[in-house]
Amino acid sequence: MMRRPRFLSLLLLPALVACGTPQELCIGAATRDIRTLDRLITEERATLARGYGYETRQIMHHEWQRCDDWVPGTPPRMCFEPVWDTVKRPVAIDPAAEQRKLDGLLARRAALMAGAEPAIAACKAKYPE
User: Fold this and answer.
1) Model confidence pLDDT, tens digit, residues 46-63
2) What is the DSSP string of 77-124?
3) Whole-angstrom distance between the N-terminal and C-terminal Cα of the chain?
């Protein structure tokens, strides 16, 4: 009996993820690349303001964990399993190159925005609120 509410909530999860008015969904689809560029522009500005960037790496280490073939009611069997961690470390940047990259992102955003404005207007006309 307790499983039914959890099961029903899992069925409703995709419906909640797709929330938004048809107009919002249409505009979101038309501006997806612009939002990605906005995120990259924000990161680039932060890198220039800091004066250094970050390098992200995956590092593996081993930890003792219960083995997958453990049977309840028996003593646990431990295995030395690999575990991956993501680490960030500061790295030097070339400020001139980073500024050129930021300028390119801003130019690309302006070009995409000019192309997206008619699509946004079409979404508003198709799905008035």
Assistant:
1) 999 999 999 999 999 999
2) PEEEEEEEEEEEEEEE--HHHHHHHHHHHHHHHHHHHHHHHHHHHHHH
3) 41
